[in-house]
Amino acid sequence: MPLDFDAYWFWLILAVILGTAELLLPGVFLIWVAMAAAITGLITFAADPPFAAQLAIFAVTAVAATLGGRRWYSANPIPSADPLLNDRAARLVGETVELTRAIVNGHGRARVGDSEWNVRGPDAPAGACMRVVGQEDGALVVRPVKAIE
Q1: Of 30, 54, 75, at which residue does a domain stop?
Q2: Quick check: pTM over 0.90?
Q3: Distant-in-sequence, close-in-space partners of 36: CB < 8 Å, separation ≥ 6
Q4: With 80 as the cut, is the pLDDT of residue 119 above it?
Q5: pLDDT for 30-53, tens place per residue?
Q6: What does the pLDDT average to over 10-18?
Q7: Residue 59 placed within a domain
């Protein structure tokens, strides 16, 4: 007994499954493939091309939708609630640190939490309190606390 199944249902159901997976899984990739499946389903409903042509339509629309989505996200970035989340050095600007190694010729070390960071700034003895004013090449730029206040 052959199944009486219109191919466009396959593509539309696939679009719903992929769209649902996009909602349940992190990321923004599956929505573009879901759109390609929906477009393929609509074209299949209207024109009923052979299955090989359906696969080609799906492949082309998936690539086009993904590239279009990437271009759109590049032009319209989503603002972050915490833009410095992955920039630990930038998050330290304004913090007061204590030097663990004196700054000599502009280079020293300071304790930040449970770790030590390379620091750059004016010469100062070990134990001096410094304020982080920036970052440069992975090192914190510091100034004496009294010079800032």
Answers
A1: 75
A2: no
A3: 58, 61, 62, 64, 65
A4: yes
A5: 999 999 999 999 999 999 899 999
A6: 95
A7: yes
CB 111 within 8 A of CB 98: yes
Instruction: Please answer whether residues 106 and 61 qualify as being in contact, where contact means their C-beta atoms are separated by less than 8 angstroms.
Output: no
Within a domain: residue 119? yes
Q: Are 131 and 142 in contact (CB under 8 A)?
A: yes
Residues 97 and 124 in one domain: yes
The identity of residue 23, as a single letter, is: L
